[in-house]
Amino acid sequence: MTLLLEVKDLHVSYSARTGEVCPALAGVNFDLAPGEILGVLGESGSGKSTLAAALLRLLPSNGRIQKGSVLFEGKNLLAARPQELRKIRGARIGLILQEPSSSLHPTLPVGKQVSDVLAAHESLDRRALSEKVSQLFESIFAGDAERISRSYPHELSGGQRQRVLIAQAIACGPSLVVADEPTASLDPTKQQEILHLFRTFQKELGLAIILITHNPALLANLADRILILYAGRVAEIGPTANVLSSPRHPYTAALLRCLPPDFDESQSARKANLHSIPGDPPDLSLHEAGCQFEPRCIERMKACKCDEPAATEVSELHEVSCFKFAG
Amino acid sequence: MQPLLKVENLVKHYAAGRTAHSKDKLAALDGVSLSIPQKTTLALVGESGSGKSTLALCIACLEPPTSGNIWFEGIDVAALAENQQRILRPQIQLVFQDPASSLNPRWTALDIASEPFLVQRRFTKPDRAIRALQLLDRVAIPRKMASRRVDELSGGQKQRLAIARALALEPKLMILDEALSALDCSVQAQISNLLLELQSSLGMTYLFITHDFAMAAHLADQIAVMDRGRIVESGSAEKILSSPSHEVTRSLLAATPRFIETPNVLVNA
């Protein structure tokens, strides 16, 4: 099967005003099949939002893609001209950000904001445009579509605003949606509704989704594969069940141990100390050699301090960057 | 034993109309009653807009309730005059969701930890610094970070600092308003361990406000579920988790993201 997206050896760095260069992504590799949901799991500072921005070349002005390639539908986005990019962003790749209130224009009705996205990419007359917008709203806000499309962002709840962003992202029938912490500001019940929408659109429209989050539990019933990002590197990538139930990288294992126990069996473990990972994530501006997780790793070996481990396949589709598994 | 905090039939109305003179009222709290025994944790769970934070503000004397009583160690807090509330306030401290916005980014960690002493006019200047350093030790912020500015601290260190500031005046009740929600899971684990440690060593009482049932289940002795300004169900954590009776509780429990199968790591560890 042909791949929808191939990211190879992606390096991104930010430069500080002092001239210091701080790497944010260092050699990220992964691919995505059409209709696949990839969960990107990482803690703050791991580079997960940089990854989302770099894929669409929307990095802030001090961010630079130093090397690598992003092949999307056979085209290298990193080499694409601005006018080519404009045809891809919003039309072929949708982007959903965390904070829906700052991604929407406060003084335009949300229906208009969705129709603007369509109008920018497709040549439709007014009637066809409003037809398409109302269809879209009907599929997302069944029953209440008319009222919501006339509403202003401040008249809507957080969950409704997030749905408007989803409407914008899928309006032009993209093949890929990149969602950066789309449910972080929502209640659990609203979170589940949004995830349900993602699942529906993946099934019905064959949409591929990159879902970026810091919450492992969100991905359990949603993602096909999970990518674990640590200090700008892919620590582990593999099928969801494998990564969550038998993580191979010491970081993934440590991260999952931090979660509170499932509450059916938690009666005895309640109020017991949770596992935590000693230390803090590395300061990437120091350019330390070796495995970035080495200082916090309970399974570190001699080699870890000197060299950086390469990705090794441990089972089908399951790759781990750790010397424990290096040939 | 008398509970540390007892809230009875608390009502809080906000004006809801388009103008200040409007007679429309929004009942943020619509007759809330709860009590927290000393050295225990009550988790208050509910969706946004259910009134959790309004309740926190009323208990901390930061919003006057419309009616009802808040008994703290047998004293009716809501009936106190402003200057008497000032004496009471150190006993009830708040920790908020986002430490980055509840701490002044340009202050040093030491400034933050010693500010409560300044506000309450306690101790001399050198004493304040010594006590602030002890507070940083207490929450495991390395001493070398004491002179760093808040914006140089990691997310976990910032939340530890917010807890250190809350501890400064030796409160009896700490209100944690979504204090773990914005943190990464490895940091959540560190902070929840710190909270448990403070509870067993200092006998701290917590009102733990959250929408995360998994964390509530882990930390709480009692759970109260709030919906539209009312407590719809409350009881021991075991009871609420094993046999939730209200629909709102059940839907919140069902929506809590969890693994279908327990990861092996939890067993192997």
How would you describe what is shown here?
The complex is a heterodimer of chains A (327) and B (269). In chain A, 33% of the residues lie in helices and 23% in strands. The model of chain A has no long low-confidence stretch (mean pLDDT 91). Chain A is of the alpha/beta class. Chain A has an 8-stranded mixed beta sheet, sandwiched between helices. Chain A is built from 13 helices and 12 strands. The radius of gyration of chain A is 21 Å and the shape is globular. Chain B is built from 11 helices and 10 strands. The termini of chain B are far apart. In chain B, helix 5 (125-138) packs across helix 6 (155-167) and helix 6 packs parallel to helix 7 (185-202). By secondary structure, chain B is α/β, with parallel strands linked by helices. In chain B, strands 6-7-8-3-9-10 form a 6-stranded mixed beta sheet, sandwiched between helices. Chain A binds chain B through residues 43-44, 157-158, 187-192, 214-218, 220-221, 244-247, 253-267, 269-271, 273-277, 280-281, and chain B through 47-49, 154-157, 184-190, 192-193, 196, 211-215, 217-219, 237-238, 241, 251-252, 254-266, 269.
Keywords summarizing the entry:
heterodimer; A: 327 residues; alpha/beta; Rossmann fold; 2 domains; 13 helices; 23% strand; B: 269 residues; 4-stranded antiparallel beta sheet; 11 helices; 10 strands; 38% helix; disordered C terminus
Brief characterization of the structure:
Chain A is built from 13 helices and twelve strands. Chain A has helices spanning 48-55, 82-88, 100-103, 110-121, 126-140, 145-150, 158-170, 188-205, 216-219, 240-245, 250-257, 266-269, 303-306, and strands spanning 5-15, 21-32, 37-41, 63-72, 75-76, 93-96, 176-180, 208-213, 225-230, 233-239, 312-315, 318-320.
